[in-house]
Amino acid sequence: MLSPRDETDLAAAVAAAEGPLHVIGGGTRPIGKPVTGEAVSVAGLSGITLYEPGALTLVARAGTPLAEIEAALAAENQRLAFEPMDHRGLLGTSGAPTIGGVVAANASGPRRILTGACRDFLLGVRFVDGRGSVLKNGGRVMKNVTGYDLVKLMAGSYGTLGILTEVSFKVLPAPAAAAVLLIEGLSDVQAVQAMAAALGSPFEVSGAAHTPKGLDGAPVTMIRIEGFESSVTYRAGQLRTLLAGYGEISVETDPERTTAGWKWVRDAEPFHGVHGDVWRLSVKPSDAPDLAARAEADGLLYDWGGGLIWALVPEGTDLRARLGAFQGHATLVRAGEETRAALPVFQPEPAPVAAISKGLRDKFDPRGILNPGLMG
Q1: Mean predicted confidence (pLDDT) in 130-147
Q2: How many domains does the chain have?
Q3: Are residues 182 and 250 in the same domain?
Q4: Is residue 199 a part of any domain in this protein?
Q5: In a shared domain, residues 56 and 157
């Protein structure tokens, strides 16, 4: 394994590479088709290089453990706004997630429905392209740019356009309080309707999830609000009134329980240690119940008000073939190597989009050595 100590070492290693490279951060998100090539780890490129709490700005090297960044932010009562998912429990991996891996996967959790995704908080990136050149884009403030918006391109590129070396973020203050409205016994259709009503209200919902089978085996719908304590209390009361027609509603405000409940959703905990493949569907919320029924899944979890569906299916299932045509994307997140090699892991792109993607990869990785085939 190549283990460069800094950006200069990494650039030299890529320039000298004579074959494919398998880019690794913390090794906690092995999503995509299996990659054959020499492993190159960015773990040595670690450390927070700038943190200005007053400016809500943080800059860190790509190999910095996510836990280190979250701890630094928590000490200043701040946080990453997009609530990045920890894939270790779902994928059965170990190690430490890195901030570069978060960006490479555009890992974004339940709060995305209110604040946006990881890419929406990226201010700048530095990376090594497939030639071994060091490129940078963006800076430390939000602004428009001309030409390629490499900041957005790198988020979700899974190391196929370049190897991240440094990222800068806008961060946000942590909320003083949170409350979660819990509605039990709703059907999937009713739950999506209730979540849509909550999200369409003026009460700034920061999480809307539903599971047909909660910890006690019954359906439960979860709606989260965050902010100043007095505001949370008021908005929780208003939402209870708004959603009264959906049945009895309880409100959970204990910080430990609310945090644990949304970690359960964020990390797709219902499928940890459970046999089967796991797919992630990004769809129109109104289409979600019908698609979930067509999936004939062994387990389901709805997030983003129904816009995200986690589906557990038997090993080797081609869920796209089972669903047929639909508006949205299906990503195979967890499966054995044989299944990941046989099926497109990411939603196949329409021909015009695929041509653009190929053009970008040819531009930034003309030798085709960075995680080749991973997103195929």
Answers
A1: 71
A2: 3
A3: yes
A4: yes
A5: yes
The helix or strand, by DSSP H or E, that contains position 177, with its residue range, turns out to be strand 177-184
Q: What angle do CA 187, 192, 197 make, to 5 degrees?
A: 125
Instruction: Give the residue carrying structure tokens 């590479």.
Output: 17
DSSP, residue by residue, 189-240: HHHHHHHHHHHTSSS-EEEEEEESS-TTSS-EEEEEEEESHHHHHHHHHHHH
Of 96, 247, 79, whose CA–CA distance to 172 is shortest? 79
Is the pLDDT at 147 greater than 80? The verdict is no
* Measured distance CA(122)–CA(82) in Å, rounded: 11
Q: What range defines the domain where residue 17 resides?
A: 7-173
Least confident range of 110-114, 250-254, 328-332, 356-360: 356-360
205 vs 241: CA distance, rounded Å: 15
Assess whether 139 and 155 both reside in one domain.
yes
Residues near 237 by Cβ (< 8 Å), separated by ≥ 6? Answer: none
- By CB atoms closer than 10 A (0-12, 13-18, 19+), residue 321 is exposed
* Residue 350 lies inside a defined structural domain of this protein: no
Find tokens 């085996």 and name the residue: 217
Average pLDDT over residues 228-234: 97
Chain centroid, CA 164 distance in Å: 17
> How would residue 137 be classed by pLDDT, with cut points 50, 70 and 90?
confident
Q: How many alpha carbons lie under 13 Å from residue 165 in its C-beta half-sphere?
A: 21
Q: 3-state DSSP call for residue 86?
A: coil
CB atoms within 10 A of CB 152: 18
Is the four-CA dihedral 92, 93, 94, 98 of positive or negative sign? negative
For the segment 289-303, the average pLDDT, to the nearest whole number, is 97
* 158 residue type, one letter: Y
The letter for the amino acid at 243 is L
Measured on CA atoms in the order 354, 355, 360, 362, is the torsion positive or negative? Answer: positive
